[in-house]
Specification:
The structure is a single chain. By secondary structure, the chain is mainly α. Among the domains are: 67 residues, no CATH class; 37 residues. The protein is built from six helices and no strands.
Length: 154
């Protein structure tokens, strides 16, 4: 029986060393980093701190010569870099154009908005209902942030 468990342990170690296991681990790590960056982007102070650190890192790499500016490149490198910039710019504007076209198509092909019944309008204007929902969400967010700060202080 004891030998059986040793074989099982050996099999588990072998499975951890497979390429599929490493790929799965990488995807989990990428997803965790994506969530972390998203949460830091939501906090303005942390976001500004991250941007400042990235700027400092860029300047350090530039001083060390790891990053070349356009005036430091050879003519061939300049041509390639400018070609890359043109392609990125074209791709960006095509994406914006396609998004705008999609928005127009959705507006044209969507049914008209459902009218609000008169009895609901008489009770409370729709804008007030939306404002109450928004205020409630703000309160929930504030209380969530307070709890988070208390937990961090402990």
């Amino acid at each position: 029986m004891h030998r059986h468990f040793q074989n099982m342990a050996r099999l588990k170690v072998q499975n951890k060393n497979t390429k599929a296991h490493h790929e799965e681990k990488k995807t989990r790590q990428r997803e965790a980093m994506r969530r972390l960056r998203e949460s830091r982007r939501q906090d303005p102070e942390k976001y500004e701190e991250d941007k400042r650190k990235e700027r400092e890192r860029y300047y350090r790499r530039k001083e060390a010569g790891q990053i070349k500016t356009i005036d430091q490149m050879s003519e061939r490198e300049k041509r390639n870099q400018r070609k890359e910039w043109r392609n990125r710019s074209k791709k960006h504007y095509l994406g914006k154009k396609n998004a705008k076209e999609l928005e127009l198509k959705l507006q044209e092909n969507s049914p008209p908005a459902t009218p609000i019944p008169e009895e609901l309008m008489a009770e409370a204007p729709y804008d007030e209902i939306l404002q109450e929902r928004y205020d409630g969400r703000k309160r929930q967010g504030r209380s969530r942030r307070r709890k988070h700060v208390k937990a961090l202080r402990k």
